[in-house]
Amino acid sequence: KIAYSAFYMTRMEWVLRKAGIDTLVFTGIVTNGGVASTLRDAHVRDFHCILLEDGCAAFSDDVHRTNVAALRSVAEVMTCADFIAALKAR
Asked: How far is CA 49 from CA 59, 60, 67, in A?
């Protein structure tokens, strides 16, 4: 990617749509950088977004926690363990 959002100047949305993908799971670093930017872009493109809060990090715990809280309005937030349990329950 060339910007904070992985959608910026890429064909990622087209590829995801062609593959029938409508839910995206977000992890990575930096929570308040690429993770948040890509997640917000996905949200406005009508993807269902799941943020794995313990699968992300920022340069400080406070920044991480603040951004996870802010992203709750546009994403389902869960832990990695909860996500794995949900997959197993399917």
From this structure: 23, 23, 15
